Amino acid sequence: MATRNYEGKKYVSESSEKILDTLTVEEALQIDINNKPFTVSMRTPGNDKCLVRGMLHSEGVLDDSNWHPEMLLKKENNQGVVTIINVNIPEEKLGSGYSNSRSLLSVSSCGICGKTELSDLAFIGRTLDEPEKLNIEIIHELFEKMNSKQFNFRETGGAHAAAAFGIDGALICTYEDIGRHNAVDKVIGKLLLDGNLKQARIMTVSGRISYEIVIKCFKAGIPFLAAVSAPSSLAVDFAKELGITLFAFCREQRATCYSHAYRTISDSKTNKAG
Fold first, then answer.
1. Which of 31, 92, 143, 224 lies at 20 to 30 Å from 207 by C-alpha?
2. pLDDT cut 90: percent of the chain above it
3. Could you give the residue numbers annotated as active site?
4. Closest CA to 218 of 175, 259, 159, 171
5. Topology of domain 134-265, per CATH?
């Protein structure tokens, strides 16, 4: 249930009319670990197991990408939307992200909200040093493929999307959600559950790029990240440090690379310096 209809009154100049609008659903999902509350995510219902699996990986709660925990849907509301999901993880499998977790609120729009301490922003790990190069000419094709799957957005105008591709531009999977971070987690979760994480080399997102989306790509081992809109300054800083080739403003046959541009190639005969 990704959308719902709502009545409204539309004003145009000096006239008005009653309308019925389709809006993207935003509902709370409580995630329990071993039957104890861990976090609450504001998300668009659907593909909840992919969302949870991706979030556990991104947050370092479960670092073993080859082991998948049992996930049980514990409760639904009267509209059939899952409200509580429990994940069973043996203690020896729990990563540092479990003890250094978010507070019990993870909103759909902001990655930093809910972090328990500013030190949670620090990250120490091996940077990505991938030999692959991305042909800049296929960037617009990636977004065309993702856009063709954005059914929720076309209906409501209120959903973000993320997609994963092979280095040749082949689409592996794509998901929508009201939250940018949730859409990325759903994609990563799907890749993990299907055993396709190593095949994913490029991630595209429909909105802007925050530092946390860069970290999610890094933890998934995806070296190329591209967005329709702008990156934050911290996103670029993290991309440089972690070895992510970051593209932004990817629209109208244009794209700007902010980090590790040496990984790009072009079939164009001319290349203007600027």
1. 31
2. 56
3. 110
4. 259
5. Cytidine Deaminase; domain 2 (3.40.140)
Q: What's the pLDDT band for 6 if we cut at 50, 70, 90?
A: confident
* Amino acid in position 213: I
Give, in order, the Cα–Cα distances in Å from 259 to each of 41, 230, 231, 246.
Answer: 31, 14, 11, 6
Q: Cα–Cα distance between 48 and 46 in angstroms, integer?
A: 5
How far the first Cα of the chain sits from its last, in Å, is: 48
- The answer to whether the CB of 147 falls within 8 A of the CB of 247 is no
Give the total residue count for the chain.
274
Q: Coil, strand or helix: which one is 19? A: strand
* Domain residue extents for the chain: 27-118, 134-265
pTM, entire model: 0.86
**Collapsed DSSP state (helix, strand, coil) of residue 18:** strand
| Average pLDDT, rounded, for the chain | 86
- Judged against a pLDDT cut of 60, whether residue 125 lies above it is answered with no
For residue 264, the cross-strand partners are 134
Contacts of 44 (CB under 8 A, 6+ apart): 2, 24, 25, 26, 27, 152, 159, 176, 177, 178, 179, 182
Angle between helices 48-58 and 211-220 (to 10 degrees): 90
pLDDT computed for residue 63 by the predictor: 85
Q: Do 149 and 167 touch, CB atoms closer than 8 A?
A: no
